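Model it.
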Amino acid sequence: MFYCVGIILGAIVTKRNIARPLLAVIAVLVSNVAAQAEIELIPGVVKLSTTQARQRLVVQEKESGEYLGQVTEGLEFGSSDESVVKVIDGRAVPVGNGTAMVTVKSEAGESQAEVHVTGQEKEFRWSFRNHVESVLSKAGCNSGACHGARAGQNGFRLTLFGFDLAADYSYLTRQARGRRIVPTDPGRSLLLTKPTGVVPHKGGVRLDVNEIEYRVLAEWIAEGTVGPSDSDAVIDNLEVLPRYSSQKPGDAQQLVVLAHFSDGSTEDVTRWAKYKTVNQNVALVGDHGEVSVVGPGEGAIKVWYLNINQLAFVSVPFENNLPKNAFENEPAANFIDELVNEKLKKLRVPPSPLCDDATFVRRTFLDSSGILPTHGELTAFLQDETPSVEKRARLVEALLQRSEFVDYWSYKWSDLLLVNSAVLPKAAVDSYYKWIRERVDSNLPWDEFVRQIVTASGSTLVNGAANFYSLHQSPEDMAETVSQAFMGLSINCAKCHNHPLEKWTNDQYYGMANMFSRVRA
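Modeled.
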């Protein structure tokens, strides 16, 4: 292509009269070069800190800073020092301590990842906390439908999703006279013979003797079934790569899941994480993080590992041929409109036209005050010849000053805060509602509104906000209500075990409840 550009430049020099059209051609060619996608090797930094460490490498197409589809064809991997790290079947494998660069080349270019290898001189042992529990969770052994049920299954119980390590260790090694573990002959342990189907198992076959999960459990047993310890590295954070990507229907994307631990180490836990798609119309996901793109829209993949949740987002633009000026005349009254327009543009979804004045009036009255406009109010607005944007803004401001707005939002907050005459005396209900209505009427900022409720004290008849604590007597109830009403989070599940859907652990639940332990009503 650059040879062609050279010919064109020569023509410009010799034929001045064709310079302008040829310059236009050059501009197109150069812009195409600038927009050409490149590749990136992820993760960009790899830490291999044990002899058993492996890191899956994924090559991602990238354009203008955005990840596109995964590149799988025509890849050539290499290591700058094979005495430190080798690439085998698309995975970085440690050889010796040191630092090296892994390079991948393709027709689209090349990319590198920095690899740090440590701990190769140390004896490795599987961790009950971080490996055995991972295998049990991935196999579903500690799920609510299996041994994680409150009563367990067939006399064997595990804590739900492995939230209590000490209890799980005791159940495995001490209960049933220790018959679930045979240290002298690990292969005869019920922990291995049941899930592999060697002996009858109602849960079916959950492990393959040829896979690493079986080896983890067998070697842990052979090494003496070392239990969890306070000195164990604890997971700090879960990272999913690529976190955001733009794909096409029919694309396949391998996710990479990295667990970052308190000792500074990082492990590739892609195989042991659990996955669930949030939108099946956009993307499906396999047991080991293989995403299959189905159709246009936005989807998310929920990733769970050791009681930590994380999300990976997949954006699939619609096959709409939008004109370049589709968003030029689209008004943006505030930053919310700007974000919406940006998202629509990315998905190639044409912006909806503005509603007519009659529709706007009806929606605005209902949304702000829960009432419909009168015939006179509607007619006056429709006959007003003021520019639409100006008169609409004026209507919104007028509605915010009306008593119906105060009534409507006082009612909403009373419902959210559980103002209930079945629990509170009538005088207390009146005091609580009056307090709420006065704050809404005075346009008190919502953060200050919440602060006054949470820090309320004194007589419930004098300070209506203090009734919040009359309605919720226990620290647990207070924590759950504050989280639900003010944070939009339901943390109730974490009262008994780590929350399976939210980033709340059992310890965090009681830490939150402890904040209210000295409140008395």
